[in-house]
Structures are given as structure tokens and as C-alpha cells.
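Checklist before submission:
- one chain only
- standard amino acids only
- sequence pasted in full

Submission:
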Amino acid sequence: MQNPVLTIGLMSGTSLDGVDGILTSFDGVQHAAYVPFPDTLKHELLVLQSASENEIHREALAANQLVQLYADCVHQLLQAGGVTANDVRAIGAHGQTIRHLPVSGYTRQINNPALLAELTGIDVIADFRSRDIAAGGQGAPLVPAFHQAVFGSNTQTRVVANIGGISNISILKANGEVSGFDTGPGNLLMDGWIKLHSGAAYDADGHWAAGGTVSQTLLAALLQEPFLALPPPKSTGRDLFHSDWLAAKLRDFTFLKAQDVQATLAAFTAQSLADAIKLHAHGAEGLYVCGGGALNGHLMATLAQALPMPVTSTAALGVAPNHVEALAFAWLAVRFCERLPGNLPAVTGARGSRILGALYPA
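Returned file contents:
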């Protein structure tokens, strides 16, 4: 391709670790960048997960700080690609989810796409979830359509699992049918627990969990969470799986060692994901994992033990696991620019296909 049309995707997820960015033309031209969140922003984003004093003002300030990091990521990508803002068609910027309550008819991703357009000189596409919710859908997950476009096969049924703060799956059938939903917690409970007990942001490679012993009684109690038994379409987030939720579950398990709780939380993530796959993805011949969970060797090994199929990362399909979600929002930005739908009603429960996003011109 001469003068390829470039797009940037930006994603900051439920794990609250930082911004992943991708510069791509979807024909092999690809550069990645990562900008970590400062501790002050992490704290504010956690506070904003629930009602707090002066939260409208605090949300606006956090959004502006977030967008400064988005802009830093964009500039890194432009430099890495040796291109200018004029070479980029659009930025797909998901924003940072602080509330996701489709049952109440709304979702909230803090962002300031007007400021991002101003700082970068590039058209910004944002607010991808709200149109699907307006059409009666869950607004999530939005990645199954992208997963089908990139990872689908006409010879085998595959499952793609994104394990970020929350876990979701895309079931890609060989006949072209696609389904998907949030399965429950991903890394967020494990991250919160190790942060509480050691100050670490996450359990590197699942090393701490691997040294503990799973409490089968606690695991059974965690698996009783009603959300797990709900039929799809369904989605969730920190609105349900948060520190107070875990504290209530642990009330009768104060005798457990902290490391054994960590081991049990890893088992909970793996088992809830595996149960969803076994129930809804009959005939699947492989699980391909993306997101931060793909980099957790203990979690991946636990998943492999729980499932009767090969378990590997999306790297086996040509996309690094930490690039998939940012690439998905670049893809959704292209769909908006071409006035093509980005949702799958069979996944989200919306009344029909919808063009997702809103344009903030440069």
C-alpha cells in the first residue's frame, strides 16, 4: 500500500495500570507504546468507582490528566512510526470506565476527547459503548466483532479470552457465528489483594499465588456469585467485583493465610472462565488469551488444567496479547469512519447493529 491510512487505538482498562496504544494500518504496519498511570491518577480512578465528595469536579480533573497521558502515548507512536498527525485518519480512544450499569441504562467512561483532538491535531472517535446501551444492549463486550475479523477461522471453533481487570470471552465458530460476554473477574481481585498485603501492583507471573494453597471451601463460596450463573448477554466491572465484595466473601475465612487467599483468587478467575467456556463454547478447539492475564504463567497453567483444549496466548495467532484491545479500538474507529456497525447484537443484546462512537474533529 502506498501512503497507508493509519489509525491509532488507545485503551486503558479495568486493571488501572496504564495506557496501551497502537499505530496501525491493518496491513502489517504497527507500532506500540505504553504509558503507565501515576499513583495519584490510579487513586483518583479507584475513588471514582463509587460515590464520593465533589465527584463531578474530581472526574473532570482525572479525565484531563488521563488525556494528557493519551496524548503522550500518541506522540510516542507518531515518533516510532516516523509519521505526523496528518498521516493518521483517527484515534479510537475508549476512555476509562468508572461506572458500567446497563441495567440502569448508562455506562460512564471518563475522557476528554475534545482536549485529545486539540493536543494531537487528529480526529478522535470516543464514547463507543453508549449507542449500544441506548439500543437496549449491554454496551460490552465490544471486542468480539474485532476478534472475529482478526482471529476467526473457517476450519475450527476458537475462543478468545481477554483477561484484564475483568474477563470476557469471544466464541468464534467455524461457521461464522460469534457470541461473547463477560465471565467475571480477571486480574482485579488478585491485583487488589497483593497490593493490600505487599504493596505490589500485581502478582508477577502469578508467583505469589503459585506458592499458596487453594481453599476449596472459599473457592466454592466465590463461585456462588449470582452473576456467574446469569445467561448472556451480560457484562460487569468494578461496580460488582470490588474490595468490599471480596471482604464480605472473606468474612468467614479470616483464618486463611493471605497467600492462600491469593491462590484461591487465581483459581476463581480461572475456574469461572473455564466454566463459562465449557457451558457456552461446545466444540471449541482452542483458547487464545490476551490482556495482562496472558502474561501470568500460573494463571495460564491453571486454565490449561481446567479445560480440555489447548490454552495459549493470541501471539500464536500473530497478535501480542497486550496489543489486542488497543488494536480493537483502532478497528472500531475505522468502522465509525466508514459508517459501519461496530457492535454484534447477538453479543450485547442490542436491538440491532449500530455505528458506535462520536467524532471530535481535529
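Reviewer check: The two ends are 25 Å apart (CA to CA).
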